[in-house]
Specification:
The protein is α/β, with parallel strands linked by helices. The protein folds into 3 domains: 63 residues, Arc Repressor Mutant, subunit A; 115 residues, Aspartate Aminotransferase, domain 1 (Alpha-Beta Complex), CATH 3.90.1150; 216 residues, Aspartate Aminotransferase, domain 2 (3-Layer(aba) Sandwich). The protein is built from 15 helices and 15 strands. Helix 9 links the parallel strand 8 and strand 9. Helix 6 crosses helix 11 and helix 8 packs parallel to helix 9.
């Protein structure tokens, strides 16, 4: 496709391209001319074209993909967690906790309300004291600061916004938690994929991302979503060693499963790291509507977070803060959270065994979901299961890279009773057998 580009200054070239992009004349994915080529065509210095493309990247209109060139950005929204709307199928791809295992807040709420006026501390003192002790696990920094945000995604968005500019590179696990991927894309940052294996983020992948110039790294230390992987002690130590040479890269640990996790926390935040943050959300064990997360960070990052909170409401509702404190310090609630943790682990392990016994090997991992590798194409399996009354979630939306990563389903099965779980396992295994047989006979592509 030949693109007619006008202008001789950086602002003129950027303005002309922006107009065409906004009018839809240059659709998402359109490859812009190489810098050298456009500079020669317009008779300008290469730095002029570089500056024009940078302006477009900072506006979120184009993406620089290294050797893949500069392309018009795709602003399509990424997939989100939750129930699929308007379906009569049994939805087993939600990523939701079991509502029956979320604590009843009624009694605690009655004790949590009092008027809070402008000028009072933005963090409830009781919650801050509790959070400081809770967040200190494996942190080698004495100067930890506590910030409260409206959930983990809110914390990640503000952490990146106070540290980065548009088109800066961010290392994300591949496959990646949908919310983190959405936050990076809508913020106009460049996602650099780092592969995940059974022990979490890979060392070679992190090293390559740092060599590529990422300014932030988001890592899930345990119960990685979607794979369920948790960092081993050896892997975490190796990642810390790689990060020693990059003390000013912002390292964000999203410990989303915290109190529910069956794995011991292994942190990648080392003593030499100058920019760091650990986030723990309440959504998985107190419910998604809690919309509260605690962030521990270095002082400079905490100050940046405070500035990012200032243009909005300045603080998270103190009623919500005190409600959270009342729940997490209640012995009966904590017993219920532990009971929920055992339930999720046991149900996922049982379903993984059921699939493995039926010829579809699965490792249960940790978290709310199961990551199921398939011997055949995921869209075909999804279609077959829809015919049998199930709605499942394919693995493709979780991946950043475009290479052949295999076929996967992410299933949320912890709330299925025994009969339903065995029925789903039977249907999934049968679909794989039928499709594999059809592929072997040449009737469909594998």
């Amino acid at each position: 496709m030949t693109i007619d580009i006008t202008g001789r200054s950086a602002s003129e070239i950027a303005a002309g391209l922006r107009t065409r992009i906004e009018r839809g004349e240059l659709p998402p994915g359109t490859l812009l001319p190489p810098v050298r080529t456009l500079a020669a065509e317009r008779g300008v210095n290469r730095n002029t074209v570089v500056a024009a493309y940078r302006q477009l990247a900072q506006a979120g209109l184009v993406e620089a993909r290294g050797r893949g060139g500069t392309r018009v950005a795709d602003r399509a929204a990424v997939a989100q967690e939750g129930y699929a709307p308007d379906t009569v199928l049994r939805d087993v791809g939600t990523g939701n906790p079991d509502p029956a295992l979320i604590p009843d807040p009624t009694a605690a709420l009655a004790r949590s309300a009092r008027p809070v006026l402008y000028g009072e501390p933005v963090i409830d003192p009781g919650l801050e004291a509790w959070a400081r002790a809770w967040m200190a696990e494996q942190l080698p920094h004495d100067d930890m600061r506590i910030t409260v945000t409206s959930g983990a995604s809110d914390a990640i968005e503000r952490l990146l916004a106070q540290a980065l500019q548009r088109d800066d590179a961010v290392a994300l696990e591949d496959p990646c938690f949908l919310s983190a991927l959405h936050t990076v894309r809508t913020g106009g940052y460049r996602a650099v994929p780092v592969p995940v294996d059974a022990e979490g983020m890979t060392v070679d992948g992190l090293r390559a991302a740092l060599d590529a110039g990422v300014r932030a790294v988001i890592v899930t230390p345990r119960a990685h979503n979607p794979t369920g992987a948790s960092l081993s002690a050896e892997r975490a130590a190796a990642l810390r060693e790689v990060l020693v040479a990059h003390p000013y890269v912002l390292v964000v640990e999203d410990d989303h499963f915290s109190l529910l996790s069956r794995a011991r926390l292994q942190s990648v935040i080392g003593a030499s790291q100058r920019r760091w943050a650990r986030i723990r959300s309440m959504s998985k064990f107190l419910g998604p509507d809690t919309c509260l997360a605690v962030t521990a960070s270095d002082a400079d990052t905490a100050d940046g977070l405070a500035v990012r909170l200032t243009p909005g409401t300045t603080w998270v509702s103190h009623i919500l803060q005190r409600l959270t404190l009342a729940l997490v310090t209640d012995d009966e609630v904590r017993t219920g959270i532990e009971r929920a943790a055992v339930h999720y682990a046991d149900r996922n392990a049982a379903f993984a065994r059921a699939l493995t016994d039926r010829g579809v090997p699965v490792s249960p991992g940790d978290g709310l979901n199961l990551w199921v590798p398939l011997p055949v194409a995921a869209p075909r399996v999804r279609e077959e299961l829809m015919h049998r009354g199930w709605l499942v979630r394919e693995g493709d939306p979780f991946f950043l890279g475009e290479s052949d990563h295999g076929a996967f389903l992410r299933l949320t099965v912890h709330d299925l009773d025994e009969a339903s779980a065995h029925a789903l396992a039977d249907d999934l295994a049968r679909a794989c057998r039928v499709l594999r047989a059809d592929a072997g006979s040449g009737r469909i592509e594998a």
